[in-house]
């Protein structure tokens, strides 16, 4: 996404959205105790854990301001946006908004498949809280912007995804609300339509509208916002100048990549320990130390001929070293039940830096992944500083006169 | 509370639009369209008429125009039953919408009642036309129509809001309502005249029977469109206290239902 010109806007000190100490918790039910019978049986047990999706958010967004919210998955971005739209009420704290709001949490939410595009425009707009009179005045504009043409008289169920999304966006944006809340929806649509939408947003900015945008794209956040809010685990981590926040955000993302796991879970790697020479768990090593990677795994049912392996990665995701039982010529005929496996590196030949560890169990031919924990662990290595790069090698230096 | 009501008023157009959508969508893609909302009660009429009118000879029990008597009860009953069933499922059924857009949630529940009321009015109109054709005697009571409609809507809205709220947290409510409606139908004078109850049940049971608010509402409908004192004295019963009780109960139910709805509204999205 190319950075774009932001129109000259009037700055104001009049708040459009005010959040005071907003927190939100969810009850995570261990078992969905939805029926009365289960409720009665489990009467005394508190069947849920509290999960704080947001904690103590203080934020004032002024009229005419554009604020982007960034953060990794599960950081509470969407919850915050939902609280702003009043879809959810906060557990603690309070929120006040001034002016009409249109939210685009999902384009075309509330479209009814059996109604035509035109009928849906009226329905959708009235769900967003706009009056028929208002809609009648701008319906032509909405239809034009959606690029639907004659299809607007067709039932929405016959639309392609693109048409559906364009219609949804067109309704929300042309209603010209005082406050526009957008969640990730710019990611849809082709490049040309995206540009068109961003231009329309730029026009709204010039008209002094307040815009709050949740996005994964740091590029969009940086190019169109006045301020960026960075959320991390429901807590406000940083708020301020887009460049500064996004730089710090990128830096942090590089240090804590979002580890993932996947696999059929026929074999489950329950725990991974990194042990030093004395067999104690450690996070920091010196070059030349011994390192043991201990993998605790469990095969729920017997698995024939599995392969276990690990890899070390640098913070950019480049693999520094990796091996597995197959490459080492070790055949494991069958695993069953709980076991543990040690990979012992007698002398760690790595240099200064942080290394991320992936571990995996897969079939011999590599077509079936039983369990793969991708860069979920890390350790630090300190070296005396006699060399650079990744690897410690013997290097004799001699000087002879020619 | 006042603010909530003001917001509902601001969104009155949405309520209207949702109701219209419901009405439009119901018979969309069907060949007969609106005719269906007349066919369904007509079929019920045929079944009950054959069973009770012809086989059990209900007409002998002082019931002229038994078919019209049936319709006078079945139509408002269907209005209540359909409105309630749809209303109870309204929140859970629109989970996707509720998670994405903010709007006063009660409009969902109320829109189903609105659409049921629309079909009811249509059916009543046809019924009245038939009464004119068959020259069934009518009275000035016909002008009480809007008041009785308002009373029934108050009752249905209150009950639907309450049960729809509970249904979000316990899906059992939906199934319970289904069974309740089935039993409730037979505990209301729709098929048989009210005199059957006073004649055949002990006094205490008849008293208990009269606690059913739907009994009083249906009796009113029979008074209006069937003219029960003249056409079927057996179906005639007049209880000012019972009526007053029903009015007070319906209003109280609406207040309680609406309050419960708003008290728990903030947590709906987490549970649906």
Provide a short characterization of the protein structure:
With 402 residues, chain A is an alpha/beta fold.
Look at the structure and give the mean pLDDT of chain A: 82
Percent of sequence in beta strands of chain B: under 5%
Oligomer: heterodimer
Number of domains of chain B: 1
Strand content of chain A: 35-45%
Tally of extended strands of chain A? 18
Largest sheet of chain A: 6 strands, mixed
N to C succession of SSEs of chain B: HHHHHHHHHHHHHH
Radius of gyration of chain A: 28 Å
Task: Walk me through this protein's architecture.
The complex is a heterodimer of chains A (402) and B (272). With 402 residues, chain A is an alpha/beta fold. Chain A folds into 2 domains: 15-255, Rossmann fold, CATH 3.40.50; 260-382, Coagulation Factor XIII, Chain A, domain 1. In chain A, 23% of the residues lie in helices and 37% in strands. In chain A, helix 3 crosses helix 5 (161-174). Chain B contains 14 helices and no strands. Chain B has one domain. Chain B starts with a helix and ends with a helix. In chain B, helix 4 runs antiparallel to helix 6. Chain B has 272 residues and is mostly helical. The interface between A and B is medium-sized, with 30 and 26 residues.
Kindly list the characteristics that best describe this protein.
heterodimer; A: alpha/beta; Coagulation Factor XIII, Chain A, domain 1; 2 domains; 6-stranded mixed sheet; 18 strands; elongated; disordered N terminus; B: 272 residues; 14 helices
Q: Secondary structure elements and their pairing?
A:
The complex is a heterodimer of chains A (402) and B (272).
Chain A: E1 15-29, H1 36-41, E2 48-62, E3 66-70, H2 77-84, E4 92-97, E5 101-104, H3 117-127, H4 132-146, H5 161-174, E6 179-183, H6 191-206, E7 210-214, H7 218-224, E8 227-232, E9 235-240, H8 242-255, E10 260-262, E11 267-275, E12 284-286, E13 291-304, E14 306-313, E15 319-324, E16 334-345, E17 353-363, E18 369-382
Parallel strand pairs in A: 3-7, 3-8, 5-6, 6-7, 12-18
Antiparallel strand pairs in A: 1-2, 1-4, 8-9, 10-18, 11-13, 13-16, 14-15, 14-17, 17-18
Chain B: H1 2-10, H2 12-26, H3 35-55, H4 66-93, H5 95-100, H6 106-133, H7 145-169, H8 172-186, H9 195-200, H10 203-209, H11 213-226, H12 228-231, H13 240-264, H14 268-271
Helix pairs in contact in B: 2-6, 3-4, 4-6, 4-7, 4-8, 4-11, 6-7, 7-8, 7-11, 7-13, 11-13
């Amino acid at each position: 996404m190319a950075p774009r010109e932001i129109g000259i806007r009037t700055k104001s000190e009049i708040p459009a959205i005010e959040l005071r100490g907003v927190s939100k918790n969810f009850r995570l039910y261990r078992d969905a105790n939805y029926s009365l019978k289960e409720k009665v049986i489990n009467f005394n047990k508190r069947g849920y854990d509290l999960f704080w999706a947001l904690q103590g958010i203080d934020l004032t967004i002024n009229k005419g301001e554009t604020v982007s919210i960034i953060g990794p998955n599960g950081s509470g971005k969407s919850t915050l946006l939902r609280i702003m739209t009043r879809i959810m009420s906060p557990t603690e704290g309070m929120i006040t908004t001034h002016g009409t709001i249109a939210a685009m949490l999902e384009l075309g939410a509330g479209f009814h498949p059996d109604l035509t595009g035109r009928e849906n425009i009226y329905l959708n707009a009235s769900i967003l809280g706009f009056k028929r009179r208002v809609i009648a005045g701008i319906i032509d504009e909405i239809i034009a912007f959606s690029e639907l043409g004659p299809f607007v008289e067709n039932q929405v169920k016959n639309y392609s995804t693109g048409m559906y999304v364009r219609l949804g966006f067109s309704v929300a944006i042309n209603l010209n609300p005082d406050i526009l809340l957008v969640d990730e929806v710019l990611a849809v649509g082709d490049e040309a339509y995206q540009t068109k939408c961003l231009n329309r947003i730029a026009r709204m900015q010039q008209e002094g509208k307040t815009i709050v945008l949740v996005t994964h794209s740091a590029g969009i956040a940086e190019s169109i916002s006045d301020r960026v809010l960075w959320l991390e685990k429901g807590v406000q981590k940083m708020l301020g100048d887009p460049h500064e926040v996004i730089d710090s955000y990128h830096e942090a993302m590089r240090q804590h990549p979002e580890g993932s796991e996947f696999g059929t879970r026929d074999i489950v790697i329950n725990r991974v320990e990194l042990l030093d020479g004395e067999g104690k768990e450690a996070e920091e090593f010196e070059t030349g130390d011994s390192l043991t990677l201990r993998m605790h795994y469990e095969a729920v049912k017997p698995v024939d001929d599995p392969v276990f392996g690990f890899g070390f990665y640098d913070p950019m995701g480049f693999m520094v070293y990796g091996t597995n039982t197959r490459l080492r010529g070790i055949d494991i005929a069958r695993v069953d039940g709980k076991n543990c496996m040690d990979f012992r590196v007698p002398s760690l030949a790595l240099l200064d830096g942080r290394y991320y560890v992936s571990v995996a169990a897969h079939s011999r031919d590599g077509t079936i992944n039983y369990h793969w924990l991708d860069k979920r662990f890390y350790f630090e290595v300190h070296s005396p500083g006699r060399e650079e790069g990744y690897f410690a090698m013997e290097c004799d230096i001699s000087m002879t006169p020619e | 509370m006042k603010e909530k009501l003001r917001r509902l008023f601001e969104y009155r157009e949405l309520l209207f639009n949702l109701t219209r959508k419901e009405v439009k969508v119901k018979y969309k893609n069907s060949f007969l369209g609106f005719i269906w909302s007349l066919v369904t009660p007509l079929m019920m009429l045929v079944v009950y008429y054959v069973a009770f009118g012809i086989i059990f000879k209900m007409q002998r029990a002082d019931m002229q125009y038994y078919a019209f008597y049936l319709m006078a009860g079945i139509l408002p009953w269907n209005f209540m039953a359909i409105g309630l069933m749809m209303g109870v499922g309204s929140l859970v059924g629109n989970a996707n919408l509720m998670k994405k857009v903010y709007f006063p949630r009660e409009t969902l529940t109320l829109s189903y009642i609105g659409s049921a009321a629309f079909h009811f009015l249509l059916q009543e109109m046809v019924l009245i036309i038939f009464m004119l054709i068959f020259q069934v005697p009518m009275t000035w009571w016909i002008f009480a129509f809007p008041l009785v409609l308002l009373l029934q809507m108050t009752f249905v809205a209150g009950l639907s809001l309450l049960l729809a709220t509970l249904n979000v947290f316990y899906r059992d409510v939906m199934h319970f309502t289904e069974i309740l409606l089935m039993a409730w139908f037979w505990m209301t004078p729709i098929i048989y005249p009210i005199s059957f109850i006073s004649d055949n049940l002990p006094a205490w049971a008849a008293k208990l029977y009269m606690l059913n608010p739907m009994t009083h509402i249906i009796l009113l409908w029979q008074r209006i469109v069937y003219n029960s004192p003249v056409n079927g004295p057996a179906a005639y019963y007049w209880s000012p206290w019972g009526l007053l009780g029903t009015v007070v109960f319906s209003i109280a139910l609406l207040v309680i239902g609406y309050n419960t709805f708003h008290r728990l509204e903030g947590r709906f999205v987490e549970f649906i």
